[in-house]
Amino acid sequence: MARGVVPRQPARTGRQDKVRVKNAHVGTGAFARQGQGKASAAAPKGRQGTAGKSTPTSAPKIKGYNPVAPDRVTEILKRLDQLYTEVKCALTHASAWELVVATILSAQSTDVNVNRVTPELFRKYPTVEAFAALTPEQLEPDVRSTGFFRNKSKSVVGAAKKIVADFGGQVPDDMEKLLTLPGVARKTANVVLGSWFGKAVGVVVDTHVHRISRRLELTTQNDPQKIEQDLMKIIPREKWILFSHQIIWHGRKLCIARKPKCAECALENLCHAGDKTWSTVEMHKNAKV
Ligand code: SF4
Asked: Distance between the two ends of the chain, CA-based, in angstroms?
C-alpha cells in the first residue's frame, strides 16, 4: 500500500454508510457458516445491538483458523465461479503472437489502454515477421501511450526476431522456450500458455492476483514467483487458468487496490484482509496488500 494511505476502518455500526450489501445471499457453505458464527464475536458490538466501543481488531482470534484449509479455498473458488462465470483474457488478440505483444505492452498499463493501441498496431504490422523487420526505435511511436515504451519496443522487436530466427515464426507452446524470448517472464508465458494454448502450466500472477491472494491469505509471499508456487499448491490444476481471470476481474470490479468495495463483495465473510473497508469478521494485519 502506498505510504500515507490509511485504510478506512469499518463503521462502529458494522455498516458502511450509504452502501447496500448486494451479495448477502452468497456464502452458505460450511466455512462461511463458521466465519459468520465467529463474526458475531468479531463484529462491532453496535451491529449486535449492544452498547460498547470494541472494534473488530480487538476481537478474539478464530481458533484453529487456517487460511489455506481446503474447505476455505474450495468455498472461495465456488464463489468466484458464481461471480465470474465466463471470464476470459481482457486483452484483444487474434493469435498467440498478438497475445505476446499485448501482454508485454500491458506491463504498468491497463488492458483498456493496450486495447486502444493494438488494433492499429496489428493492422500496420500484421505478422511476427513484420515486427521482426523493425528496429525498436521504429516501433516506439506506436506503443508510446502504453508507457515504458522504449523497453517495451525493445522487448517486442527482440521477441519477434527470436521467434522468427529460432522457432520458425511460431510462438512456442512451451514454458522454457517462451522464457527465452526477450521481455517474456513467467507472467506473460502463463498468459499465452493458458489463454491461447489452453495449457495450465502455472498461475498468472499480475498486480491483481498479487494483491488479492495476499488479502485472502492464500499466500504471505510478496515475490510473484513464490506467490505462484503457493497458489499452485492449493488450487486444483484445472482451475489455474480460470482462477487468474476471475481474480483479475475481481480486482478490477470490487477488490480494487486503494479502496476495495468490501460491502458489495461476495467473499466478504471469508476475507480477513487488514485493509478491508467494511467487515463482519476479524481483520488480520498480515492479510493486506
Ligand atoms: S472483502 Fe474486500 S478486501 Fe476482501 S476480497 Fe472482497 S473486496 Fe477484497
From this structure: 6
96-170 CATH choice from 1.10.3720.10, 3.40.50.150, 1.10.340.30, 3.40.190.80: 1.10.340.30
CATH 1.10.340.30 fits 23-95+171-289, yes or no: no
**pTM, full prediction:** 0.78
Query: 154, 161, 162, 187: which one is catalytic?
Result: 187
206 is a catalytic site residue = yes
* CA-closest candidate to residue 224, choices 241, 244, 246: 244
Higher pLDDT, 250 or 47: 250
Ligand 1 centroid to residue 199 C-alpha, Å: 29
pLDDT, tens digit, 9 for 90 and up, residues 230-289: 999 999 999 999 999 999 999 999 999 999 999 999 999 999 999 999 999 999 987 876
Domain ranges of the chain: 23-95+171-289, 96-170
Instruction: Give ligand 1 pocket residues (Cβ under 6 A).
Output: 215-216, 254-255, 260-262, 265, 267-268, 271, 273, 276
Q: Which of 152, 154, 206, 275 is catalytic?
A: 206
Q: What CA–CA distance (Å, rounded) separates 104 from 155?
A: 8
The residue among 122, 96, 86 whose CA lies nearest residue 188 is 96
**In sequence order, what are the residues at sequence separation of 6 or more whose Cβ sits closer than 8 angstroms to the Cβ of residue 253?**
261
CA 158 – ligand 1 centroid, Å: 39
Give me ligand 1 centre to Cα 285, in Å. Answer: 14
